[in-house]
Amino acid sequence: MDATERTPEIPLFDLELSEEDIEAVLDVLRSGWLTMGPLTAEFERTFAEHLGVEHAVAVSSCTAALHLAYLAAGVGPGDEVIVPALTFAATAAAVVYCGATPVFADVVGPHRLDLDPASVERMITPRTKAVCVVHFAGYPARVQELRALCDAHGVALIEDVAHAPQAYVDGRAVGSFGLAGAFSFFSNKVLACGEGGLVATDDEAVAALARSRRSHGMTSGTWSRHTGETITYDAQGLGFNYRLDEPRAALLLSRFKRLDAEIARRRELTRAYRAALAGHEGLIVPYADEDVEHSSCYVMPVLVRDHARRDEIRLALRSKHGVQTSIFYPAVHEFTAYRERFGVPSLPHTEHAARAEITIPLHMAMDDAALERVVAALEDTV
Ligand SMILES: *Cc1c(COP(=O)(O)O)cnc(C)c1O
Q1: CB 39, CB 28: distance < 8 Å
Q2: Is 151 found in the same domain as 120?
Q3: Which family does it belong to (predicted)?
């Protein structure tokens, strides 16, 4: 392995923290209070206001947020939850944590990699308790149609908003259309702090359940006992340790101030890619130019027309051009753990995308020259 193979010249993701971000975390370390406390509460208020929702409950990951959202929807043993298979495994895994069965539905097609409402409708059974939609790559999914479908069948809509901290449908933020939205602040996400997540909801009972279960079902937390607000606690349900902590909340608050500007830059990079790749005969670029302004532009997916060459193209991009790529996503229903337990439904559009997709670099540390190199590398290899 030579150096370019170990560290790509143009990585898929990169994260640049400002001195202010680092100072904000150092201040917390100096304060001596590390676990969930006032900064976590301040971040929750900031994020709830940004989304236009009543409640935001910060947790340790989006996986935890999905688990709590499914529990809040009443998902339990014997139930089914309809999820896409073209997603990160967590969307489906959190269903299994509840003792329920993930039922995979197909995506729209190569030009839209989010759930097809018609496919979801075909999967609804009397055991369906919820549908979870993923806003793929930051582009709003067909959330209004899905909401109407869910309402008609009396099932909950959950949104996996890991890719989309700022994306809109008719001026309303995604993550606010269902019973609950689950956000991620993992290292490579749009708003990152390392590990973190959040449950957003307008529903008082969902918020109360998430607040309680993230911390062992306890009626009060360490901070409220520290401040003398409470002196003891009861455990009112089986909970988990899904807490966020203060250094991460401080980092999120600091980075949040740049979110608008960073997403504007992501959209600019996305538009530049779209313009440069539009005429490429070997590639399909999903979504439309007019979708970009409503998207968080988390990643840049492209599909190779001759998908038999996809893996060879990825290897050449890396070894010859120093360009790191990824696959969004290997299909969850084809993973060993899911195949063995839940069988393999036929999802033609998902399977096609899982074989043809390449995710190319898109991040804040990327300049126009790097983007042009990625475009040239695609022209050379595809
Ligand atoms: C990253 C991701 C998750 C999991 O987020 P964590 O914060 O790492 O738990 C869930 N769903 C999707 C679609 C993701 O991309």
Answers
A1: yes
A2: yes
A3: Belongs to the DegT/DnrJ/EryC1 family.
Q: Which residue type sits at 337?
A: A
Ligand 1 atom closest to Cα of 61?
Answer: 7
Using H for helix, E for strand and C for coil, what is the string for 109-122? ECCEEEECHHHHHH
Which residue has a Cα nearest atom 6 of ligand 1?
62
Q: CB-based contacts of 12: which residues, under 8 Å, 6+ apart?
A: 188, 324, 325, 326, 359, 360, 361, 363
pLDDT tens by residue, 301-354: 999 999 999 999 999 999 999 999 999 999 999 999 999 999 999 999 999 999
Residue 137 near residue 298, CB atoms below 8 Å: yes
CA 84 to ligand 1 centroid distance, Å: 13
Report how far ligand 1's centroid is from the alpha carbon of 366 (Å): 23
The structure tokens 């997603």 sit at 87
Query: Which amino acid is it at 181?
Result: G
Ligand 1 residue neighbourhood (C-beta within 6 Å): 61-63, 87-88, 90-91, 134, 160, 162-163, 184, 186, 197
- 270-307: b or e for each residue (b if 16 or more CB lie within 10 Å)? beebbebbeeeebbbbbbeeebbebbbbbbbbbbbeeb
Rounded distance from Cα 90 to ligand 1 centre (Å): 6
Span 58-104, pLDDT tens digits: 999 999 999 999 999 999 999 999 999 999 999 999 999 999 999 99
**The pLDDT value given to residue 3:** 47
- What type of residue is 76? G
Report how far residue 347's alpha carbon sits from residue 86's, in angstroms, rounded to the nearest whole number. 10
Judgement on whether residues 109 and 189 belong to the same structural domain of the protein:
yes
Low-confidence ranges of the chain (pLDDT < 70): 1-6
Spatial separation of the C-alpha atoms in residues 17 and 354, rounded to whole Å: 33
Domain assignment present for residue 23? The answer is yes
Please state the length of the chain.
Answer: 382
Evaluate whether residue 7 is within a structural domain. Answer: no
Nearest atom, ligand 1, residue 196 CA: 7
Last residue of a domain, one of 256, 289, 312: 256
The total number of structural domains in the chain stands at 2
CATH (domain of 150): 3.40.640.10
What range defines the domain where residue 237 resides?
Answer: 19-256
Is position 14 within any domain?
Answer: no
